Amino acid sequence: MSTVLAFLFTIGLLVTVHEWGHYRAARACGVKVLRFSIGFGRPLLRWQRGETEFVLALLPLGGYVKMLDEREGPVDPSEHGRAFNRKPLLQRAFVVAAGPAVNLLLAVLLYAAMHLIGIEEALPILGSPQAGSLAADAGLQAGDRVLALHRTEAPAARPEDSTWQPVPSYAELRWQLTEATLDRADLRLRVEGSAGPRELVLPLSRLDASEVDAGLGRRIGLSGPYSAARIGSPRPEGPAARAGLREGDRVLAIDDQPVADAVQLRERIRAAGIEGGMPRALNFRIERDGRELSVRVQPRLGADGGPPVPRIEALVGGVPEQVLLRQGPVDALRKGVERTVEVAVLSLRMLGRMLIGEASLKNLSGPLTIADAAGQTARSGLIPFLGFLALVSVSLGVLNLLPLPMLDGGHLVYYIVEGFTGRPISEAWLDRLQRGGLAIMVLMMSLAFYNDLARLLGQY
């Protein structure tokens, strides 16, 4: 239920904001607005305010603002001056662009609010890189903290060189990895850890831009932020509890092989061999209250929709070390603008790469993925949910500005053509373009829905 409510709130808010932008711009230009509808289909609630009817309809996936327009029906001669089609070109373009513009403005305010309240994020301390991966071959190790980075195409950098960009959080590191992979650029990292301070190069240019999707981190070999190899909440009567493991125990080694972090702990447990139809017992060396103890654990076979693997039936891993990032009002607003621009540009680049086949079509998401993300972020707290709202608001604004018929961007293209030719596009061509735009939108929605189902079924 929380997922459904979060999804309805998200769509309702962002659609209302988008249509409110069209509505206010139309009113400012003297256009008569006949109806302001949130949703499509049968009206659930309607009320009249002045000359505009406000409607809440059955299907919440969209909305519209119906304006007085001679192309949609007869208009009384006394109201010709208030018809949308009679307005000057720049005013019509302003009304159309106002919807996406307000979505982008909302994203700026949401990102600014996040930075003003304070964002608690994991520090850029790395978990164990996967063996044989780019990260492992580059020399990264569990516990390494990324201090700064820069693109290798930049001039050779000195410690004080401005080309080095500080990395305050793991989220920022992930963002930079995505952008660098899209650009086929290598990253030079400045890190410190058990091997001491050093610089190394992460050769992201070896990856194809089509590999930029939710699994990019795994392809690079980064499993996520560092999490200590601790035992948490053993299941009653499970292997961990039967062996005497307790919440908070830190695992130092398994079968005399050191364990660096939670990633290695999970790998060692799952790698336990099968003897006589059951997993081999493992010798844990743990630290508890400052003392080292030896514990023998007999895993069980278990499965989560895949082949059975050895499990100890306890949570594995501690909470990654966090940092609170907070800005003053002016800096928060600047950060809001910067992040909105970055997300919008990245979205456009991803769409362009998908169009020419250089990025995976798996990145296209539909309502099921949005609903799932809405529920998860809402349960995680205010800041994650604000970030999700901002991301979807940017996506909605960018999508509507695409030069496709049926979208706001398509209408803006019509107006650009009208500005150069001095006359509007003919009704016959408008009909053809609208049909083509409808076909493209149906194709995109079908692909997005297929990706949603594939994610839910575990195929991606």
UniProtKB/TrEMBL annotation:
- For this protein, the parts annotated as crossing the membrane are 89-114
Q: Its topology with respect to the membrane?
A: Multi-pass membrane protein
The EC number on file is 3.4.24.-
Q: What class of enzyme is it?
A: hydrolase
Q: Name one GO molecular function term.
A: metal ion binding
Cofactor(s) the record lists: Zn(2+)
Domain PDZ stretches? 201-259
Keyword Transport assigned: no
The record's SUPFAM superfamilies line, in alphabetical order, gives: PDZ domain-like
Q: Name one GO cellular component term.
A: membrane
An individual GO BP term: proteolysis
Show the InterPro entries listed in the entry: PDZ (IPR001478), PDZ_6 (IPR041489), PDZ_sf (IPR036034), Pept_M50_Zn (IPR004387), Peptidase_M50 (IPR008915)
Q: Which family does it belong to?
A: Belongs to the peptidase M50B family.
Instruction: Output the NCBIfam families linked to this UniProt entry.
Output: RIP metalloprotease RseP
- Output this protein's name: Zinc metalloprotease
User: Native species of this protein?
Assistant: Aquariibacter albus
